[in-house]
Amino acid sequence: MATRIQKCKWCNKVLIVPFQAQTVHCPSCRYVNYITPATTQYNGNVNNGYYQQLIQQSPRPPFQSTLLNNNSYYQHPRSYNNGYYKQEVSPRPLYNGNYYHQVSPQPVYGRKRAVLCGVSYQNTAHSLDGSVTDVESIKRLLIDRMGFPDQSILVLTEAETHPLQVPTADNIQRAFRWLIQGCQSGDSLVFYYTGHASRVPDDDDDEFDDYDEALCPVDYKTAGKILDDEINATIVRPLPRGAKLHAIIDTCYSGTILDLYFMCRMNSKGRYYWEDHQTPSGGTYKGTNGGIATCISACDDHQHSGNTTAFTGKATGALTHSFIEAVQSEPTLTYGRLLNRMRTTISELQKRLGLHDPAPQEPQLSFSEKCDIHSKSFML
What we know:
With 380 residues, the chain is an alpha+beta fold. The protein has helices at residues 44-47, 52-57, 99-103, 131-146, 169-180, 220-223, 228-236, 318-329, 335-352, and strands at 3-7, 14-18, 23-25, 32-34, 73-74, 85-86, 112-118, 153-156, 188-194, 197-201, 211-215, 226-227, 244-250, 262-266, 272-276, 292-297, 307-308, 316-317, 364-367. The strands form 6 sheets. It has an 8-stranded mixed beta sheet with strand order 8-7-9-13-16-19-14-15, sandwiched between helices. A 3-stranded antiparallel beta sheet has the order 10-11-12. It is globular, with a radius of gyration of 20 Å.
């Protein structure tokens, strides 16, 4: 039987796999590797193993950012005028002006709201196990430990029956708008994502590494990907004073997926410094409207995140498992303690499995403004 060489994306172990295999479990770390079919052109440096043709054939159309009234504004991801300019072309219909009906299958509810998105890519070569159960686990955590009402949590997975709750590109953008709709001082918002992501060349000079990070919705082949620029414009920039947003992103290349200004660089001893990601004068504003935005990412922008059965015997994201374990184990956490516990959990798993290379996955924290992570309490 014909075989080929494949390196595990989580621990770098060399694997010998059948020529036509689409997935392979690493025997060392149990990471599920998704393999591009041998007959398909592959560009791992740009697109994490997705087809090269996706970027060329499926550019994402300019996205719409609807404000909190019935006036339609259009926002192009590359040509900002401090975020917004008046619509010059035909906007999407607003369903007779009823914004709520357009945005989601359920009305905006409560001072605590969450969008939980898990993409499985069913019946594809890049299918993911565990996305739906990870979403369910985060939902239980929010309800049982954080006081989120069930009615205030909008779930998008391929297991949902409502057409607006399938994690397509349009539905994820609708969910973003639902999340920020009517947000005011005292509100707490959460966005959770588990699925695939990739990097695409940056063409507006707002990235230090020259790449935009992008989420891959279930229909990314036809609708394109959701860039970090779009996420920032839709749920970060409108965040008002007194409100807070936490994004928990369990995917590859997720370090700066919200394009927040300040990345916390912490070493194993808990010492940290702030890496400033503010764009030069005249660049697009990426801050909030006075609120506090925080992103808890699975890994740095150049790293892969793990989806493994080694924790519980069932497939789960390494970040999701370590995040839930930390929150449930310690009633009072600081952001510094949370980051350290997540990193320790993943590192100890690698040691238990006999992996001695430097950690290929290190969870990251980024903020819209600086804080003392060792004294600031974590609370959703």
